[in-house]
Amino acid sequence: MSNIELSYRNYDIDHHTMTPEEIKKKEIIHCLYKQQRMNISYSFNKHLIETYCKFTSIINFWSLFASLDKIVDLSDPDTSMPNSLHALQTAEAIRLDNKPDWFVLCGLIHDLGKCIFLNGKDSDGTSRSTQWAIVGDTFITGCAIPDDIVLPEYNSLNEDHQKNLHMYKNNCGLSNCSVSFGHDEYLYRLLQANSNSLPEEALYIIRYHSLYAYHSTNSYDYLLDEKDRLMKPIVKEFNKYDLYTKNDSNIIKWTFALKEYYTNLVKKYLSANLMLYF
């Protein structure tokens, strides 16, 4: 693993070398993951999907995107920026590498599902102050949680993990598994409700980019079907842009040209009139 890779996703708390502010941030991350593992089971996942994935209102895309100005990911040790700024960093890095325009749009919208907090509740972990059912690495409910997931010391708090459930057959496919609820699953379902024209690769990126145990380890390989295996390198490629573009000192400012470019992408793949079911 390179020095650059080692500098990201570090969740250790070192009271000897870290500042009080750094320690506090890491403690918040640990608390969030503890709550996530403790609360999100297969049954609670069903509750979250049924509660938050109705999509009965209509909103302008840019109004929805602007909500990301108001949320900072409490699980992320690598940035303290609002998610709207991180989204533009990701998209622009992808565009700079001359990737397909749908891939660029994925960079812009991949965290848009964090808008759940607009209708969220503390008790569900979906509010701006809790976030444990919005952000963080996801995992598959209804079975044991892998040891190589981030902060595995909290796995034992999970109901499904305690019961050592085995709800899935080998090679059943991720689409037949219940991945812990968060902004990935929420945005995937929101896009489906809006009859988008994104390619299947884009939808995989949206739905599984936080499932690190899928795209960055082999822990869930026993569940994958042929399509999941084909998509894994694509999600993994996207991950490097999502992760390694985070830089709080390199803020990209919106210009008229940028707004026009991304508006045209939204019109092409999501909605010609920029209105979305939400």
Average pLDDT for all residues? 96
Secondary structure: number of strands: 4
The best one-word shape is globular
Number of helices: 12
Number of domains: 1
Proportion of beta-strand residues: under 5%
- Our measurement of the CA-to-CA distance between the termini, rounded to an integer number of angstroms, reads 40 Å
Helix content: 40-55%
The major pleated sheet works out as:
2 strands, antiparallel
Give a summary of the structure in a few sentences.
By secondary structure, this protein is mainly alpha-helical. Helices cover 45% and strands 4% of the residues.
Q: How does this structure look, described?
A:
The protein is mainly alpha-helical. The chain has one domain (26-277). Helix content is 45%, strand content 4%. It contains 12 helices and 4 strands, in the order αααβαααβαβαααααβ. Strands 1-4 form a two-stranded antiparallel ribbon. Helix 5 runs antiparallel to helix 6 (101-109). The radius of gyration is 18 Å and the shape is globular.
How are the elements arranged and paired?
Blueprint lengths: L2 H4 L13 H20 L2 H11 L5 E3 H6 L16 H14 L4 H9 L30 E2 L17 H5 L14 E2 L3 H11 L6 H9 L3 H4 L10 H19 L11 H14 L5 E3 L1
Antiparallel strand pairs: 1-4, 2-3
Helix pairs in contact: 5-6, 6-12, 8-9, 9-11
List descriptors.
two-stranded antiparallel ribbon, 4 strands, 278 residues, 12 helices, two-stranded antiparallel sheet
